[in-house]
Amino acid sequence: MNKLRYIYIVILLITGTAAFAQQSLIQNIYSRKHISLNGRWNYIIDPYEMGYYDYRHEPFDQSKSGKGGFYDDRKQIDKSELIEYNFDLAPTINVPGDWNSQAEKLELYEGTIWLRQKFLANPANDKKYVLYFGAVNYEAHVYLNGKKLGVHKGGFTPFQFDVTGKLKKGENFVVVKADNTRKQDEIPTVNTDWWNYGGITRDVLLAELPKSHISDYKIQLAKGNAGKIEGFVKLEGAAANEEVTISIPEAGVKATIKGDGQGRAQVNIPVRKLKLWSPESPKLYHVEISSGNDKVSDKIGFRTIETRGQDILLNGKAVFLRGISLHDENPLIPGRLRSSADMRMMLNQAKELNCNYVRLAHYPHSEEMVRLADEMGLLVWAEVPVYWTISWENAATYQNAEKQLTDLIERDKNRSSVIIWSIGNETPLSEPRFKFMSSLAAKTRELDNTRLVSAALEVHRKGFDVIVDDPLGDKLDLVSFNQYGGWYWALPKDLSKYKFQIKYNKPVVITEVGGSALAGFHGDEDTRWTEEFQESLYKNQIPFMSTMSGLRGMTPWILTDFKSPRRQHPYFQDFWNRKGLISETGKKKKAFFVLKDFYEKTEQKYK
Ligand code: GCB
193 C-alpha to center of ligand 1: Å? Predict the structure, then answer.
């Protein structure tokens, strides 16, 4: 290699890594002083990625001049240059919002779209600035004022960039290249049963913090111990011996803790008489954390969660998880949930079904959703999109899965509603998969030892035996599996002939069960797609599942109909998965009332 070329590559590597370094997540960013960059963003559809690659397919942003991409600052462009794009004249789209539901020609689009927003800033010298994205599906390249900030992969977790010193006084502009192309080695992989909604689907904020600040904290009850708050506070840019004060005025708690000299203070506070959080009484305390010139406050609930034999103990008391599964999708207003009103509506429907628990499938839902669950009193199963047939042997794929899991746990570790971390769904048995999933389970426990770890497993059948013996079960706290008796196998009325054979003596929480019905389509209970068939399925499944002595909860599939390209029947489906208990127009199907009634009785039993 000639010397110059070598030097050039080294420079590229150094600057490249620096440019892509993402800053670790600031806890509770919404409580920080910020401006929202939500609103109408200009967008350019770029199926050939001509705004990213030159005609030799070399990325503009890695070329020597760094010029030519759609992130360029037009004010710096020479008048005589040939420019074949124009953000100012481009149409606009709502952010947050997936693009598929906002323009007819984008309904099935998968690929690159460029989005731009202008905003005013007045940066102060003694502050730190952070550009935050709640979620962009799937790969985001982010540029500020024409300069690359970095890349993020993963469609459902937040990320942020330190933009201190990069903001101009006055007008600034941020450009995002969002690409939702499905790829085998990614998380999720190419094959899922949900719509691949692309774009900036959650909030964008610009936050301001003191230069030395509280960057992260965990304030929760110690595992199984209602008498002790345990956790940590992390400081960035603070003096080595900085102190941290934690106060919960309503509970008379005030503790001052010394940092360890490396920006971390270990929290260990004995508490008495805290009113514990539960679905019946979702008590949240106002918690204040302060250090030096910085102060942050949060609303935190305190509860314990454990298993004992086949029981799940919430605050030491046996609980039955009366749940339902949800996608991050509002069928009434097509697309991803985009406001707290949407989210409240979904969770209220779960409450109407007499639920005390929801499975937020199959990927991290928004922070706001989980905060609402805290406030409304719903326990939560939170999941990462390790779904179906992942590239188990690819090291980068594993790193990606672990990163998404870490980001989810970091974001939601202070939410009392979250009791279960799920590391995946219906992953097919093999040695490499066992290794991959076992590592994820171990990582979860390392990051958070106060919650339960699970995954939605599969069953297999032999004659009339429905068997759960996945070796991964050894690594998990619950026996959770999806079983579609009455829909993909057996008829609803034949379910009583079957028997569950479960290898593990742990609480059973069924993650999926159900079948499809087109709302308003009626007939007898033997006719598929009728509401009566679905109703009969639930009527037969409930006694069938109840034959398991360890049954401690379930989240049937699913609260509402949702869009999926895999659902092709032109009349009954038309791109909708019809397993919802509520239709895409908000109509409750007959099965809704079967489950509601069962949950009402179960609630009485567990009182
Ligand atoms: C499953 C998957 C879920 C699907 C569902 C179905 O087992 O976990 O994502 O949507 O089945 O409807 O077939």
Answer: 6
